[in-house]
Every structure is written in C-alpha cells, then in structure tokens.
Amino acid sequence: MALAALFVAATKLAGVLVTVTVAANAFSFARYRRRHLRPLRSPIDESADVLAAFDVHHDSEEEHGFFFGLATAPAHVEDRLDDAWLQFAEQHPCGDMELKQKQQPVDALMASAAGDGGSQQVSLATDEPLKTAKRQTRRPIKIAMEAMIRGFEKYSDGEEHHSSPECSHAVAAWHNVPHPQERLRFWSDPDTELKLAKDTGVSVFRMGIDWARIMRKEPVKGLKDSVNFAALERYRWIIERVRFYGMKVMLTLFHHSLPPWAGDYGGWKVEKTVDYFMDFTRLVVDRVSDLVDYWVIFNEPHVFVMLTYCAGAWPGGHPDMIEVAMSALPTGVFNQALHWMAQAHSKAYDYIHEESKSSKKPIVGVAHHVSFTRPYGLFDVAAVTLANSLTLFPYVDSICNKLDFIGINYYGQEVISGPGLKLVENDEYSESGRGVYPDGLYHILLQFHERYKHLNLPFIITENGISDETDLIRRPYLLEHLLAVYAATIMGVPVLGYLFWTTSDNWEWADGYGPKFGLVAVDRANDLARKPRPSYYLFSKLNFRW
Description:
Layout: H1 2-36, H2 47-51, E1 67-71, H3 74-77, H4 84-90, H5 97-100, H6 128-136, H7 140-149, H8 159-163, H9 190-198, E2 204-208, H10 211-214, H11 229-244, E3 248-254, H12 260-265, H13 272-288, E4 294-299, H14 301-310, H15 321-325, H16 333-355, E5 363-369, E6 372-375, H17 381-391, H18 394-399, E7 405-409, E8 413-417, E9 420-421, H19 438-452, E10 459-463, H20 474-490, E11 495-500, E12 520-523, E13 529-532, H21 534-544
Parallel strand pairs: 1-2, 1-11, 2-3, 3-4, 4-5, 5-7, 6-8, 7-10, 10-11
Antiparallel strand pairs: 8-9, 12-13
Helix pairs in contact: 11-13, 13-16, 14-16, 19-20
C-alpha cells in the first residue's frame, strides 16, 4: 500500500510539474509575441511613397541626409587572388575527408548564424541511397555544428555525387561553372562593376581590401619580405576609380578572408593575429585613408568565428571534437576568437582616428549580422533566448565605445523549433532558404537603438539583399525593407544609409555561384557578360528620384 501511495503521489507531482512547465512556457511565449512580434504599422500606404520617404543626398560635400549604396567584398569579386577561399574551393574532394569535406544537407537544425550568402533550404537531391551514403561519411559532431551554423544547403555539385558519393567539394556550385577562379574580374577590370554601380545613382560603394593579397606570408622577420606593395598601389588605384565615378568609399578591412598562413597557426584563436592585423591596418590606413569616407573594420565577426572555428565549414578552422563541444563556454574558442577580434577592432579604431590623412573626421564602424529569430511554439522561447544571447549583442557590447556607427547586415528571419530551425509552411523564403520578413529589420533597429542610444550611435544598413534568380521577390523585398527602415526612423532610430547586397551575382562563400544576390545577372559562359535585372532599374529609380 505504501508503494502504491508513493506512486500516486509521484504521479500527482509529475502532473503538477508538467502543468507548471506548460503554463510557464505559455506565459513566456505570449510575452515574447507581445514584445517582439507586433506587426509593423506602415507609415505610408503606397510603394510610390516609399521613394519619397528618405531625405537622400547626392552632393559629395553634404554631411546630412540619407544615402543609398551597393556592397561587395574581395573574396566575392576579385580575380588573380590566391586566397584561402580559392585554395578551399580547389582542394581535391577525395583528400583528407576529416578536413576537406563539403557541407552536405542535414536533417535537423539546431540554430543559425549564416551571414551574407548563407543557405537555409532543404536540398533538392532525391536519391535516397545516395543520401544514406553521404550520411555514413559524415562526422556526427560536424553534422551537428553545421546544422547549428549553416542550415540547409541547396547548392550541390550534381554529377560529382553520382561518380563518387564519398567525395565532395568544399565549395558547392564552383567546379561546375565556367571560369570560377575569375570571380567578377574586379581586380583586373573594376570599371565594369563600378559603372554598373554608378548608373544606379548610389552615392556610396562598399568594397574591401584582401589581407592575404597585401601580406603574402607571415611577417615573422618583419614586413619588408612579406608585403606586396604593388598590390597596395593597385588597391589605391581601384579606390580612385570608385571616386572617379562619383561615389564615396566604404572600406572593409576584414570580410571573412583570413590569410592562409594565419589559418595554419590558428588565426583569431591566437593573440599574435591582433599584431599582424594591425600591421595590415597600418599599411592600408597610411596609403589610402585620404580616399576613404567610411571604415568597416570587421564584417560579421561572430559569423566568421562560428563557421570557421566551431563548424569547420569555412577555410582556416579545422576544429576537433573537444574544441567544438566547449566552443560556447566563456573560455571556449567562440568567445576566445571574438575577444581577440574585439581587441584588434579597438586598436584599429584608434589608429584610424589618430593617423587618417582624410580632411574629414573618420567614420568607423562594424558590419554586424543579425537575423530576426522567433520561436515556433511554446517550448522554443528558451532556444531563441540562448541563440540571441550568443550572437545579438555581445560583440557589439565589447566594442561599443570604439564605434562611430553600427552597421546592420540583415537578410531575414529564422524560426527556431527545438534544437534547430523550422521551415514554416506558407512563410515566404528566398531561393537559398532565408525567411523573408521585412518587419524583422524594423524590430532589430528598435532593439539596437534602445540598447545603445546612450552612446548616440547612428546606424547604417551595411547589407540587405535576397537570393532570387527570377527577380520576382527582389523588387517587393527591396521596397518592403526600405519601408521598415523608414518606419524605424519615424520611431527615432537614426539611420544614415542603406547598402544593398549586391551589384552582380558573385561567389557566395561555401555556396559558390549558386545563390543569385545580384541586381545584375552574370553570364559566366559568355565572358562574364552582365544583364541588369528589373530590380536594377527599380533600385536606380530610388536613387534618381531626387
């Protein structure tokens, strides 16, 4: 009898705990919806009014007003660049499988922090035996971390899979396109891209300088034997071309491109990388600062760290199982690498302000990737809270006193269910699986403004775009996100400008040439011929209206 009574009591207790848990999650979910999921109230009703909503300026001497721009990066567009990304793409698919495996589709998702060009869509493959073969060749820890960071991969190498399911390339949609190593020939022929940008009427062009092109090897014996001064002069000439076309320059110093030699010793996991990065920063600032209007020191640092050192999905990482398992701890590789990047940012910020040769005060910031994350159901609020606690504010908090603006890279939303992501029926997605949610940009801007308004920091949308080869989604995507920006400004958020990603279709990190983010299509089989899409002309209309 005593045992039966104990069993009944335990059952009652379990029932009470379940009831309390459900009630607590229901309360948290309702509170989250009330605080974060209120729909955007449109301040204007017609798309034509969007075009007139911004006080845009084109005068190069004008300091106030809203600007439009276009953004890109060296690894996306520069030919004749033997960087870590090219080496990563060209590595033999049947080499060291532990380090060189391509990221394949996965069945479950844990969270996401994919930056520009990141894919989040279910694979198109349908051959079930082949899927099984792929799964058998994957390391469980890599599957988990890949799921956490990248999401679903869409872009595959097609015939490569059928010839050898155990061999796959590190970069999808790269070997099966014409002239992949030429990217967009921005190094040898920048004018083609710059003229396309200029003809949209934008006033700012965002580009970067590749660290590995300037510093060809580790400067263990000083800079004399490691620096390519001719490349530095070429970059100065390219920046002069940007200004020739009447555009201001936003220059990025680190855009997901770690020199191969730095990756060999551990990169941003090691303190000496701070010193090497400062060597690079001093070279760039001393040579081109008189031509630069805006500086971005790091692009999406937490995305780089996660995909490189936690997932091993990008070149230069190679994490082992223990390192991955401990990565999110305070002393783990994630926080360790971000710490050294924050140190480098602070030092670079000071050097730019002290040594810039520009006649105007330098404007220095960060391009911070943010996705709007929301829970799928009652029990997913905790997962959203955890994901945001790692990626939303910590890095910006660590450098907020060394910023002149906060750059926001926003592509869409992620719905979290359990340990992963949920593709929600009837929600709108880009071709690469990114959830389309313009209201999220509005909410993100309000969140960041509330957190940092005591510092009086303005914002720049440093990246916003969509993978859409058909160009059917891109046009409303553009207008709706501009509407979100305008709504945020009405609420008091100081937004200086908006840069669209990107001018022409280009190499999108580990997805290769699969995603089509460009306002302009590129015919790689026809000498990289450009063909502007309808969205190109809409974007031009935005700029030329004034």
